[in-house]
Amino acid sequence: MITDNNKDSQVSMLFDHLVEHGSITDLEAFEQCGIRRLSARIWDLRHKHDLNIISTPESGKNRFGKKISYCRYTLGGTA
What pTM does this model have? Predict the structure, then answer.
């Protein structure tokens, strides 16, 4: 388990989500964990907790039908 302070409660929640579900996107992080700055929390996992988080570019359509790009983050083990 990963803990430190209030910010790291998001890191802990994110880590638990990655262990349970395998991956997460920015939208999933907001909807399921209330995390609005996913890339910052991914940085924390990579640099403060020495985890290998893999970024995979994906694309889809937004609610207006426009093409968008985003990343899916996957837990890859220790770095």
Answer: 0.84
